[in-house]
Amino acid sequence: MPRCTAKSKRSQNQCLKWAMFGKNTCHMHGGKSKGPLTKEGKDNSRKAAFRHGAYTKQSLALYNEAISLIRKIKNLLSNT
Ligand SMILES: [Zn+2]
């Protein structure tokens, strides 16, 4: 069984209590939590974790497309 991975804010020491079964944290540090269960709760959680959107699927696809276009242009320029 693993130890709790929570760290103290003040001392930065690890908790070291036994983690709950199947979890990484003890009962004092969120081991009992099941996380957001409803659709509304999951949406709220996603919104809270969203920072700037630079790593969304759409922006990453756009970035990869731009990189591939730049590579094509470089290849064309180097061949001539
Ligand atoms: Zn703990």
Describe the structure.
By secondary structure, the protein is mainly alpha-helical. It has a domain at 34-79. The chain has 2 helices and no strands. The chain has helices at 39-49, 57-79. The longest helix has 23 residues, at 57-79. The radius of gyration is 22 Å and the shape is elongated. The mean pLDDT is 94. Bound molecules: zinc ion (ZN). Zinc ion (ZN) binds next to loops.
- Structural class, by secondary structure, is mainly alpha
Count of helical stretches: 2
Computed CA radius of gyration, to the nearest angstrom? 22 Å
Most strands sheet? none
Listed once per kind, the bound small molecules are:
zinc ion
- Give the helix level as a range of percent: 40-55%
What key attributes describe this structure?
single chain, about 80 residues, mainly alpha, elongated, binds zinc ion
